[in-house]
Design a protein that fits this description.
The complex is a heterodimer of chains A (109) and B (122). Chain A is mostly beta strands and 109 residues long. Chain A has strands at residues 9-12, 18-23, 35-40, 47-50, 64-69, 72-77, 86-93, 98-100, 104-108. Chain A is globular, with a radius of gyration of 13 Å. Helices cover 0% and strands 50% of the residues of chain B. Chain B is built from no helices and eleven strands. Chain B has strands at 3-7, 10-12, 18-25, 34-39, 45-51, 58-60, 68-73, 78-83, 92-99, 109-112, 116-120. In chain B, the strands form two sheets. In chain B, strands 2, 4, 5, 6, 9, 10 and 11 form a seven-stranded mixed beta sheet that branches. A four-stranded antiparallel beta sheet of chain B has the order 1-3-8-7, with no helix packed on it. Chain B is globular. The chains are: A mainly beta (109), B mainly beta (122). Chain A binds chain B through residues 1, 3, 32, 34-36, 38, 40, 45-48, 51-52, 55, 57, 89, 91-93, 97-103, and chain B through 37, 44-47, 50, 59, 61-62, 95, 97, 100-101, 104-110, 112-115.
């Protein structure tokens, strides 16, 4: 059950847009549309931000968007705000397993 | 208010057992799949186990298969994780979580508990 590959860190200034990638394989991200993104602030439980590649749960800002191309899913945050600084994890489903990415630390400069 | 509250964590010796509980409120518990996710200190998230709303279909990570058992009690709106043959590498915060949709959205869990710490050490 190999983890999905995410960059360890990304950064951006307030108001800018950033994208976090999540690379899997043709057995997970590439074949299933069950990809989710979670935001986690230090000492807090994860929060669901995107599900099924590009859907936002109710209450999540439309500044957060998701997409997928081939074996790579992406989370884009537009109009960066200080409160967006957190760890972000992608997750994918396969018929035999569920995996998370290693996580990406977003720093808002 | 939709809420999950975990309990049962603590310090246990290697080889020991522990049962975690997750009390649900504010939603129809029997309608949704539930999961346990853990996070070792300073590390990332790991799916531990998932149970479908039918209480029958389950998933276990390879790292816990044969040692952990997930179950639900719909009469008590409670999710459980029975952990045995515990190892040092099982040390983590254990979160319970509710799936967002009653069907599909297979790795989308929208309500999480506050977590309960399990420490395996002699």
């Amino acid at each position: 059950q190999s983890a999905l590959t995410q960059p360890a860190s990304v950064s951006g200034s307030p108001g800018q847009s950033i994208t976090i990638s999540c690379t899997g394989t043709s057995s997970d991200v590439g074949v299933y549309n069950s990809v989710s993104w979670y935001q986690q602030h230090p000492g807090k439980a994860p929060k669901l931000m995107i599900y099924d590649v590009s859907n936002r749960p109710s209450g999540v800002s439309d500044r957060f968007s998701g997409s997928k191309s081939g074996n790579t899913a992406s989370l884009t945050i537009s109009g960066l705000q200080a409160g967006d600084g957190a760890d972000y994890y992608c997750s994918s489903y396969t018929s035999t397993t569920r995996v998370f990415g290693g996580g990406t630390k977003l720093t808002v400069l | 208010e939709v809420q999950l509250v975990e309990s049962g964590g603590g310090l246990v010796q290697p080889g020991g057992s522990l049962r975690l509980s997750c009390a649900a409120s504010g939603f129809t518990f029997s309608t949704y799949a539930m999961a346990w996710v853990r996070q070792a200190p300073g590390k990332g998230l790991e799916w531990v186990s998932v149970i479908n709303n039918n209480g029958v279909n389950t998933y276990y990570a390879d790292s816990v298969k044969g040692r952990f058992t997930i179950s639900t009690d719909n009469s008590k709106n409670t999710l459980y994780l029975q952990m045995s043959s515990l190892r040092a590498e099982d040390t983590a915060i254990y979160y319970c979580a509710k799936r967002y949709c009653s069907s599909s959205c297979l790795v989308a869990f929208d309500i999480w508990g506050q977590g309960t710490m399990v420490t395996v050490s002699s």
